[in-house]
Amino acid sequence: MRRxxxxxxxxxxQWCRNIITxxxxxxxxxxxxxxxxxxxxxxxxxxxxxxxxxxAKGYTCSLNRVARLMQANNIKAKVKKKYITTTDSNxxxxxxxxxxxxEFTTEAPNEKWTTDITYIWTKQGWLYLAVVxxxxxxxxxxxxxxxxxxxxxxxxALQMAVRMRQPTSGLLHHSDRGSQYASIExxxxxxxxxxxxxxxxxxxxxxxxxxxxxxxxxxxxxxYHQSYQTHKEAKRDIFYYxxxxxxxxxxxxxxxxxxxEEYEQNWQRLSLVA
Length: 274
Known about the structure:
With 274 residues, the protein is an alpha/beta fold. The termini are far apart. The protein has a five-stranded mixed sheet with strand order 3-2-1-4-5, with helices on both faces. β2 (125-134) and β3 form a beta hairpin. It contains ten helices and five strands.
């Protein structure tokens, strides 16, 4: 072919090098943007979310190209580690029926909330986190962190949610059968605010799957990659993750890759038009 095309051997290889250089020059700006988005996500985004973020910023690329460049440049999302549950359902307190029954979809904000507790290890001892999540947008609407599993932990999270969202009477509130949620004080608070209680079946983690999913994400993206010295240090990080990153910026696959805040704002705009 060299003889037929009347080109020199050195000219052919120079042509090959020019193609490689041109491709590299074309990819370098995109790789830099991929690295930037990856860093902004605290190294938690994989190729689908990075691709959506780049599209939102006006970059023209394909998902396959983003995935290929990430692999070539060793850009990876953080991996998940195992976690355990903290539910104590061995008590004689009354429990509510499973009204939610794994119906996690809803048409508007403040129709269905779900709540649970998880734990974070620090060198000062365990720190417990209780959160309340709105199933419509997966937004964390209430949260509380304390060094004990006392009922005051979950009460503070619920009070925050009610104060911030001002729900109307009839909202469905789902939890596990833990003694904190079954306590007289907590149930009285639900009744006072007009919230309908619902509880998971014993030993069935799927009944509160949305909440389990949030905790898995929190630990995969943040907690497992830290070594907290104090409760204060952990509280600061978790506050930032929930209020600055997760609620307002993190793209959620079940929300058409919008953040919870963006999803609610989009719903409000569509409601006004309708």
